[in-house]
Amino acid sequence: MAQLKEHRHPAGEGLTTTEAPFIEEAKSNGQLYIEQPYELYSEQNHQAWRDLYHRMVPLWDQYANDQFKQGISALCLDPNQVPRLSDVNKFLAPLTGFSAKAVSGYVPAFLFFDCIRQREFPTTITIRRYDKLDYLPEPDIFHDIAGHVPMHTDKRFADTLVRFGEVARTAAEIVQEIKGKREQTETLTSIMKAMARFFWFTIEFGLMKGKDGGVRAYGSGLLSSFGELQYSCTSPKAQRYPLQMEWVINQYFEIYHYQPLYFVAEDFEHVFEQVDLLEKWLKEGKLSNVQPGEPAINRHDLKSFLNASI
């Protein structure tokens, strides 16, 4: 792995989302996979982590699913400073074989899914600005480590992520066999919308029935959001529907506000079964003509599937 020169940027300059010279330099050099330059985190970066973490604890106690809470405990995260990925992996890898893998920015769709197939989770190392703690439309290290990774400590959930990566490989195989560029692009665009919507409404913003008759969050976007976690579970304004494949793959989503609706799984077995059904529908062609609309599929994501080595 190529690495940036050490200490090119002065310690304490910060690794703040959209404001980190280290990240900009990595991108300009074409480096996607990087090392975490821990010495660059500023005190304000650590303060942002500290405040984000401490204010989430009571919400996790009330609205997070049990596997997530067990995962938080298993990772031994330091609530007072940005975690070192090496420390996270020390606790994570022995449990499920997963590891957090530092990246400089957006990972094209197929590459992302292929990483999780290999039990490597692409992880953002920057953290949101201290004066913008409430919402960030792009991922940061708090979203990735405190939102996603605790669920990766659960063996069945980790295995399901691997299966999702396998579904992506199946999709790449199918579209690469299609003759005709236009049909290939249209089919792939539809398949990718379906997969993105499924991932969004389960892994990112999924809810699950609780033992007390309420709902609990298992989606990372909810588990890392101070405002939306409680909203998703309790607000009368939020629409909550049973998790059904035909609804999920045809439902568009937007990222710049709280979700107007959520899908509620019966339990984790229900979620796991849906991933198998997703692949079945993919092979049957049921993902090739889903409802148009968000999310938009960019050319880099399309190329990642069309040029995938499988």
Can you put this structure into words, describing what you see?
The protein is an alpha/beta fold and 310 residues long. It has one domain (21-306): Aromatic amino acid hydroxylase (Phenylalanine Hydroxylase, Orthogonal Bundle), CATH 1.10.800.10. Helices cover 50% and strands 8% of the residues. It is built from 13 helices and six strands. The strands form two sheets. A four-stranded mixed beta sheet has the order 4-3-6-5. The chain has a two-stranded parallel ribbon with strand order 1-2.
Q: Quickly count the domains.
A: 1
**SSE-based structural type:** alpha/beta
Main sheet characteristics: 4 strands, mixed
Overall 3D form: globular
Strand sequence of the main sheet, in spatial order?
A: 4-3-6-5
**Which stretches are low in confidence, meaning pLDDT under 50 for 5 or more residues running?**
1-12
What percent of residues adopt helix (DSSP H or I)? 40-55%
Helix run count: 13
**CATH topological fold name:** Phenylalanine Hydroxylase
Strand content: 5-15%
For the secondary structure, the number of strands is 6
CATH superfamily: Aromatic amino acid hydroxylase
Radius of gyration (CA) equals 19 Å
Q: What pattern of helices and strands is seen along the backbone? A: HHHHEHEHHHEEHHEHEHH
The CATH class turns out to be: Mainly Alpha
CATH architecture: Orthogonal Bundle
